[in-house]
Amino acid sequence: VDTRLPKAATGPGQALDLLAALNWVHEQLALPEESRLSELRNVDSKRVSVLGNSGGCFPCIGLALELAKRGESNKVKGLLLQVPLIFPRWTLEPVDQMLPYNRRFWAEEVFRGMWSCYACPEESNKRNLANQTPESLWADRDNRPDLFALGSTAGSLLPKAPAMSILTTEFDFGRWQTDEFAKMVKDAGKLNDYVVMVGRSHTDANPFDKECETITKQMFEMYLS
After folding, report:
1. Percent of the chain as helix, strand, coil, to the nearest 5
2. How many other C-beta atoms lie within 10 A of the C-beta of residue 186?
3. Cβ-count burial of 58 within 10 angstroms (0-12 exposed, 13-18 middle, 19+ buried)?
4. Measured CA distances, 56 to 132, 138, 181 (Å)
């Protein structure tokens, strides 16, 4: 499933795109077997799961929080996140390791997307956030640490979200953020497993890598089947 890009999908647009696809799957599964698309025949509606890879994990987590907010987490059995690029707390740190493009990308997607929708209930704050540019958000980071604490996003939602399984690599450039996010999910009682591929890097976790494929299948069989 593809989603709109961050600039085209304002607010939680990417998460809502995934939700629309998920609802369509369940609509199909509610039909008699012979009326479904061939790919969805013999599929159990109680075993629908979501898999995200790299930056694609971000809207998947947004979907999980959206389901939690709506009380609809039972629509998926769980999430499997491969080498997720997520910045749970100080989202744009460390400065010296991020290019301006990356800072702009995360500011647009994180702050205007997930944070403003799931961790900012006050309408005035949402409006203030929407009026800021990625550059002004970045410049104001020391004065508004709350803006950067995606941990507050989880808050009351993560414990209500679907369970998650996380696969990362030893030398992933987003490893420290993934470690922290995994701890957040574990503290919320929603972490099925956290697996680290030893001696591997971010790009090794792809559908064409045999080790990644094997571990992914094992995690699906253990937690999502």
Report:
1. 55, 10, 35
2. 14
3. buried
4. 25, 23, 15
CA distances from 86 to 24, 35, 120, 170, 214 (A): 27, 39, 18, 16, 24
- Secondary structure class of 191 (helix, strand, coil): strand
| Beta pairing partners, 53 | 82
Which amino acid is located at 214 in the chain?
Answer: T
For 162-188, what is the mean pLDDT?
88
CA proximity to 111, closest of 153, 53, 82, 60:
153
The first and second tokens of residue 155, run together, are: 């808050």
Sign of the CA dihedral with 83 first, then 15, 158, and 104 last: positive
86 secondary structure, DSSP code? -
| Token pair 């919320």 in the structure block, residue | 188
Distance CA 85, CA 172 (A): 9
Structure confidence by residue, pLDDT tens digits, 87-115: 544 343 444 444 555 555 555 555 555 55
What's the pLDDT tens digit per position in 5-55? 666 665 567 788 899 999 999 999 988 988 888 888 888 889 999 999 987
Q: Closest Cα partner for 92 from 172, 149, 132, 133?
A: 149
Tell me if the bond preceding 94 is cis, omega within 30° of 0: yes
